[in-house]
Amino acid sequence: xxxxxxxKMRQRKAQARQRIIDCTFECVAExxxxxARITRIAGLAGVATGTIYRHFESREDLFAEVFRLATQREVxxxxxxxxxxxxxxxxxxxALRQFAERALRGxxxxxSLIAEPVDPKVEEERLAYRxxxxxxxxxxxxxxxxxxxxxxxxxxxSSTCLVGAxxxxxxxxxxxxxxxxxxxxxxxxxxxxxxxIIRFCMQGLTGTxx
Length: 210
Hints:
There is one protein chain. By secondary structure, this protein is mostly helical. The protein has ten helices and no strands. Helix 1 packs across helix 2 and helix 6 (107-114) crosses helix 8 (155-174). The longest helix is centred in the middle third of the chain and has 28 residues, at 120-147. The termini are far apart. 30% of the residues are buried. Keywords: DNA-binding. InterPro entries: Homeodomain-like_sf, HTH-type_TetR-like_transc_reg, HTH_TetR, Tet_transcr_reg_TetR-rel_C_sf. Residues 14-74 form the HTH tetR-type domain. Residues 37-56 bind DNA.
C-alpha cells in the first residue's frame, strides 16, 4: 500500500517550516543575512539541519523566502500609508515617512532588505521589492497629476527616482558600521533625517520648495 501523508503530518510539517522561517527572520533582524547560519537557525527552530533542507532546497531558497515575506510586509505598510486622506502629495509624504521611520526603527532588518550584499536569488527578490514600491508611487503620482497637485511628468521614471532616493539616503544611517554610533549620537534627530528625505523627494517631484 502506498504511503499516504495524514493531515496531522501535514500540519507538523507546516509548523516546522514556519518555525524555520520565523527563526531565520529573527537571525536576520539581529545581524543580517550574514549571521543567519543554518546551524544556528536549526538550533533556534529545534530541528535538525537536514530538516531545513527538506523544506528548502538550499540556503539561498530559504533566504529568498524570508526576504520575500519581510519585504511584502513593508510594501503593505507603504500601501496602507497611501490610503491616507488628502491629495496625492499628502499621501506620498505619508508613504515616504512610513518607509523611512520603519527603517530607522529596525535598522538591521532594513539594512538587510535595502543594501546588504546577498546571494543572487535574494537579489532578485530585492529588485522585485523595489519595483513594488515604484508601482505604488507611480499610481499615486498619476493621481496627483490628475488632481493638479503634481506637475505633468513621466510618472514611471519619477517613481523609480523616489525609490532610489529614499533607499540611498538611508544606506549610511542604517549601515552596521555606522548605525551603532548613529543610534548613540543621532537618536533624537531621526525626525530631522526623515524630514530632510521627504522634503528632497517632494521638491524633486513637485518642483516647489516645501
